[in-house]
Specification:
alpha+beta, Serine Threonine Protein Phosphatase 5, Tetratricopeptide repeat, 553 residues, 3 domains
């Protein structure tokens, strides 16, 4: 979002003085005052000024467009994810209104296009943004005097960015070449040339495993689809066959095509939700390195498909129940918990079976449990020094576990710690060893996202800097959460070699999101001939760390 603000600040001046449309002097003054407020850092005043402008000019596209622009900029400044989402939604309401008032005005098209390609893809505005920028460029060809050169150059720049997000590399390269031709020898042109060079080197991602030949059933259905490509029934049959073969990516592609041909086919929607759910259920893996938003995008896509299906068939018990369950399970930022509660209460009043109603009650309990946690999270983040905050941590702190040393050959070191907080999502956690001089020895454990995303998205800065990700492949596993955790170190370093006697530092780092709570604790212990123990008790996120050394018997 902060990147979006940077771009908007850079281009608001361009659009202000190169709109290519006739505005009254009074509206120009509104825009100028709003721009001055924005430049001074007072976006709230800029929004207030443009809100006044639309009161005076309720049918003016430019007034709504600038209001949408500044509202979008506000979204990029807030640290509150929910508030950012609300502001983005409001921004697009204004921009959509502007385009509806004057679809041939380049200013709203540029503003909405710029917003669409810069906000996170999972918000579902990328295609809209690309379309707006394509229309803007088409306008410039049909009426060159209507679109200024500065806006056109920026339009090419952001259109290329949108194509890159869609992984449409050749389209991006073509647009960047047009930018270079339009603005030769500029910094933008040099940057475009560099991007073209990088895109030209990019090779399609190779499958890690050679794909097995299709079963005879799928081969036969593919031939039927080839002979009758616009038959949704055949496509659904093929999608179902792919599902049975556990090829969920291909199933998704085929079922989406079926829905394009028959937008009201509930069977296709149900199968597509299942396919997307299977893809999302794979957990974090190496795909995260290429696209850190992969699972986020899947979450939003699943809900969009379910919402459309329920709109078509609101009385379908299976669909409403499914949307209720998935809505509860979704991360907080998808913002479907309230809708899920409505769906599950609807199930209780429907003709559903007793078994389904029992499940609905269970998921309603889970839903309200999640709602309850949001209040405790607010206490901890907004009133961290209060007694109420300590009550939260006390209420969340779990019982301790124990390790069976008979299962291990000494010498070994046990690392025993507690995670004392629960956020909307499980935290990112790392456990590792360093020498007393601070040299990295070995990672004992790291959470799935951090281990796979590596330098693409650093959530654990101390571990990342120390380990340089040299040994993550063997120790990365599912995220741990609130509770007591024990790990055992066999005293081997990351190369498998036994470490020398001496002092070592055991470190545990944890980062929560979206609360942004963070803590790192450490304990120093001597590895020698005698049994040793070290305990660290500090903070609330990792309130207890105990390390014990057991020498050879």
């Amino acid at each position: 979002m902060k990147t979006l603000v940077k771009y908007l600040i850079a281009f608001v001046v361009i659009v202000m003085f190169n709109a290519g449309v006739a505005l009254s002097q009074t509206l120009d003054e509104y825009i100028k005052k709003a721009q001055d407020s924005q430049k001074s850092g007072d976006l709230s005043r800029a929004v207030k000024i443009m809100s006044g402008a639309i009161q005076k000019y309720p049918d003016n596209a430019a007034a709504y467009s600038y209001l949408g622009l500044y509202t979008g900029m506000q979204a990029g400044q807030t640290k509150d994810f929910m508030e950012a989402g609300r502001l983005v939604t409001k921004s697009f309401e204004m921009l959509d209104k502007a385009v509806s008032l004057d679809a041939n005005n380049p200013v709203p098209r540029f503003h909405r296009g710029l917003m669409g390609v810069n906000i996170p893809e999972f918000l579902g505005k990328l295609d809209l943004g690309i379309n707006d920028l394509e229309i803007l460029i088409k306008m410039s060809k049909e009426s060159p005097q209507k679109v200024s050169k500065d806006i056109l150059i920026s339009g090419y720049q952001f259109l290329a960015q949108g194509y890159q997000k869609k992984k449409e590399t050749q389209k991006a390269i073509l647009v960047l070449k047009k930018l270079i031709k339009l603005a030769p020898e500029t910094e933008l042109a040099k940057k475009a040339e560099k991007t073209i060079a990088e895109l030209s080197k990019t090779k399609p991602a190779q499958e890690t495993k050679k794909k097995k030949p299709d079963p005879a059933k799928i081969t036969g259905l593919k031939q039927q689809v080839k002979n009758d490509p616009n038959n949704p029934v055949r496509l659904i049959e093929l999608g179902k066959a792919y599902m049975d073969n556990k090829d969920f990516e291909e199933a998704g592609k085929v079922l989406k095509k079926a829905i394009e041909l028959d937008a009201n086919n509930i069977k296709a929607y149900k199968l597509l939700v299942s396919a997307l759910g299977e893809l999302a259920g794979k957990g974090y893996d190496e795909r995260i390195y290429e696209d850190t938003d992969l699972r986020t995008n899947l979450a939003f896509e699943i809900m969009r498909v379910l919402d459309k299906a329920c709109e078509i068939s609101p009385g379908d018990i299976e669909l409403r129940f499914l949307r209720g369950i998935i809505g509860v399970e979704m991360p907080f930022f998808v913002q479907k918990l309230e809708q899920a509660i409505v769906d599950l209460n609807w199930i209780l009043k429907s003709d559903a079976t007793d078994s389904t109603k029992a499940d609905a009650l269970y998921w309603l309990g889970k839903a309200y449990q999640k709602k309850a946690m949001t209040y405790w999270i607010k206490v901890v983040t907004k009133y961290s020094k209060s007694k109420a905050s300590q009550n939260v941590f006390a209420g969340l702190r779990p019982a301790f576990k124990r390790v069976d040393l008979a299962k291990y050959q000494t010498p070994v070191l046990t690392i025993d710690f507690v995670l004392g907080f629960r956020d909307e999502l499980p935290p990112q956690t790392a456990v590792w060893i360093e020498t007393k001089e601070g040299a990295f020895v070995k990672t004992i454990y790291v959470s799935g996202f951090s281990g796979h995303a590596k330098e693409k998205q650093v959530n654990l800065p101390t571990w990342s800097e120390s380990s340089k990700f040299v040994d993550v492949d063997g120790v990365t596993s599912a995220s741990i959460d609130l509770g007591h955790h024990i790990y055992v170190w066999d005293l081997n370093d990351n190369s498998g070699k036994k470490v020398n006697p001496g002092e070592y530092i055991i470190k545990v780092e944890v980062a929560y999101w979206p609360s942004m709570e963070y803590q790192m604790v450490s304990a120093t212990i001597n590895l020698g001939k005698n049994q040793e123990q070290a305990v660290t008790e500090e903070g609330n996120l990792i309130p207890y760390l105990e390390v014990k050394y057991y020498p050879s018997k």
